[in-house]
Every structure is written in C-alpha cells, then in structure tokens.
Amino acid sequence: PRAPAGMGDVPEPCPQAPLAVLSKVELRVSCKHLLDRDTLNKSDPCVLLLMQSQGQWTEVDRSEVIKSNLNPVFAKIFTVDYYFEEVQKLRFEVYDSHGQAGVGTHDDDFLGGMECTVGQIVAQKRVTKPLFLKYGKFAGKSTITIISEEISGNNGYVELAFRAKKLDDKDLFSKSDPFLEIYRIDDDRSEQLVYRTEVVKNNLSPIWEPFKVSLNSLCSCEEKRKLRCVVWDYDSRGKHDFIGEFFTTFEEMQKAMGENKVQWDCMNPKYKIKKRNYKNSGVVVLLDLKIHRVYSFLDYIMGGCQIHFTVAIDFTASNGDPRNSCSLHYINPYQPNEYLKALVAVGEICQDYDSDKKFSALGFGARIPPKYEVSHDFAINFNPDNDECEGIQGVVESYQSCLPKIQLYGPTNVAPIISKVARVAADEERTKEASQYFILLILTDGVVTDMADTREAIVRASYLPMSIIIVGVGNADFTDMQILDGDDGVLRSPKGEPVLRDIVQFVPFREFKNVSGAGTRSCL
C-alpha cells in the first residue's frame, strides 16, 4: 500500500513501507504517419495507456477517438503517479476505432504500440519513438510523441463556459459545425493543446458545454502566460476549416467571474489582409469562470485544521456469527478479535493526529434495536445525537457493548457512511472557516455490494476536506478495495468523472498486524 498525502511522513520505514510519491505527471500524446486501415476514409485513432503491475499489463485509461486523422493530437491528458525509486513500465497502444463498436483489439485494428518507463519520459520531457506492430515489425513510418509535465503543488482547477456569436459560415448547403481548441504557449514558443470542445452541429452561434481543466495544464499556474484559442468548422474527413483565432491569458479570462462576461473578436489573419472592411469572423464569449483551489492533507494540517476521526465498523453477516470462534467478530473474553486488533492498531496512530481524542463511531450492515431493521450508518453507542466516544478505548468499549445487542446482516453498503461524513465536511466547508479535516476509517471484511454508489460517493467526497482509510480485516478478496484505492489508475464515478484528489488509502490488516508500532505507522 502507498501512503496518502501527509499520512506517511513519519520516519522509521518498515519493510512494507510505501515508496514516496515524487509527483504526479501529466502526459500528452500525439502521433504522426499512422497506418491507414480504412478503405474509404482515414483511420479513426484512439490511444490506450497500459501499466505493468506484477508482470501483467492493465489498461488504466484511454484517449478520445479522433475521426479520419493519421496525424492526431489527442486532447486527453493522462495523469500518472511518478515514484522516483520504482521502474514504472508504460505501454501506449494505438487502435483504429469503429464508431459504436468502439475500440477493437483485433490485429486488423492495431495501428502500433510503444513501451517506455515513466522515468524516461520525465527525464527527457519529450519522447518520440516509432510504433511497432506484433513481433517487432515497424508500423511503417508511424511515430508517437509523449510530452510530460510534472504537476506543481498548486493543484487548483478552473471551470470555463464558452459560446460564440455570428461565426463565418464555411459550409455550402448548411451552417458551420464549430468547435473550439485552447492551446497554451510555452516558453520555447511551442503550443500544447489544453482542451478541445465538442462539435455543435449546424450552428453559427454555438454554446459549448462547460468544462474543467487544471490550472497547471491551462497556464502552468502563470496567469500572464499566453493562450491561443482557435475555432474550427468540423469536417468528418478530418479536413477542418479554420474559422478564426484569438489570443488571451488566464489573467484576462478572470474578468468573467461573477456576472461579468469577456469576449474576443475571432480573427482570420488572411481575411484581415485581403478584405478592406473586415471586422472579425465572429465573436467568442466567456460566459462564466469558476476557480476551485485543491488543497492536500498537509495544506489543511499546516493551515491549522483540527482532525476529526470517524470509525465505521462492518457488521455484515459475512464476518461470521460472533458466537463462533471462526468469526472475525468472535466475542472472546480472553483476547481481542480481528476487528478489535485492527481498531486498536490503526486507531492509536490516528489518535495522535486528533486534538480532542474523540472519535465518532458508526456501524453498518446490521439489524439494530428496537425494531431490528437494517441500518447502514448507526451510532454504536446507540446515541444518534452524540456518536462520539472518548478516545480509542471508548470506541472499544462501545463496540464490545454493541455487539451482543445487534444482529449481523447485510448487504455491505459503504456509500451511506461515506455520504454521511461528506455531508458534515460540506457543512464545515460552507462556514468558510474550514477549521476541521475529516478522516473516515472503515474496517471491513471485503466485498462491497454498492460499488457504483460507493465510487460516486468517493468522487463527490474528493472535493471536500476529507480522506478515507479502508482497513481490510481477515483473509477475504479485497479486489474492490484496491479498485477504490485507485493506485492502479484514477478512480472514476460510474459516469466517468475522475476523483479530484486521491483520498482513499486501502490497507490489508493482515500485512502489518505483526509489525511494530512505528512500522505500522509508516505503512499507513
């Protein structure tokens, strides 16, 4: 397991101690001279990013499909964690997509692949390599270029909403089908594609969908850095018609905050020279701009936030009958069961960060008195008005008192607990003081029933001052937990929205229950 930000900065590493994350890296991909697999049109390329883990290649993300283009510049930005001491193997595979059928993986659709490491890309900043087909055969003159950029500490993002008015009509029998591209101009005068909007069909005054980009991607967190914005008329054969362009900066864009709007003349330089009375080729308007600052765990702590811990314990029937010695909840008068061992080992570490030493203690997945209805977020002290316990010992006592009174049941729904803590964190953030940071410690034996709802809840929670530590108890299959952790790829909601911050850390208790206290601390 790898340490969440701020939780692994204690010295004395143990054998299982995680590698320190040096940084997150953004990767931009473009290709040239791709093979043409289509009979009538050109190939419709898409790039798949795979990472090697324990000898197996796993897809972690993929780009958009670019229609009819053998020299694509992909708008998709891949984000990967860069572990300085680790050889992280990447594989980029380019495929010809087939409309609704999606990206095929047949040899006929394969346009070429390339392998490298994250370290190589970071060291060189720009890597261009030939694409290879199966058995080491060159894919013609095809090349792939990867440009890397380490994300700085300022991980804010901006939400932008653009529209245009009275654009030039480039089509003979209908109106233009406009889309907008934003490029960042770097110090060496090269241009990096930041975002490409969707195409709005048959409309000279389009309103494009609002979108989010990181400040790092948009302007390298430099407000005065020049941006080039280009409007095109979409062509299904890949030969898009240039409508016009304008230059701006993020500093200028910020005038669109609140009720204000900012607009630019969309200019075609050729028309400006040729036409005497040329004014513009339309106007582009920035309707709205919202800046969202993203703070790390350390930002909150160093800013004076108090830590508030909530413990959530899995009381589902899969843990076994507490009267049976095989149960993870076995009521043993002589020694603590697996849940108590995990609670004390992890809870005592967490207690160090908590100033008032009070823990909210919740349970989920059990039938509870008086009506014995299933609850997925009940106070284990049975006091819904005050679910706090005095220190980890208070949680232990409430757990021991609660266990004989409830009936272990199911299903294993984790989303209600996450949403409950998230609501408290959201209320705290709305006070504008944001004086508390919330950590949810979930103790569970494995498989999550409401996986889709849990992913959605985690994505929502990633916007709040909140982190989640999941401790796997017992020897069950923890595949779901590793997916939620997101170490093998960015966790996304069912609709595809990525987490804003990596807020989940999964720890299998069996891997460090015999390690010393200091060792356990650094494994977290």
From TrEMBL:
Keyword Transmembrane helix found: no
Keyword Repeat assigned: yes
GO CC terms: plasma membrane
Keywords: Repeat
Transmembrane segments: none
GO terms classed as biological process: cellular response to calcium ion
Domain VWFA intervals: 308-507
Pfam families the UniProt entry points to: C2, Copine
UniProt-listed InterPro entries: C2_dom (IPR000008), C2_domain_sf (IPR035892), C2B_Copine (IPR037768), Copine (IPR045052), Copine_C (IPR010734), VWF_A (IPR002035), vWFA_dom_sf (IPR036465)
The family this protein is said to belong to: Belongs to the copine family.
Name of this chain's protein: CPNE7 protein
Species annotation: Cnemophilus loriae (Loria's bird-of-paradise)
Gene coding for it: Cpne7
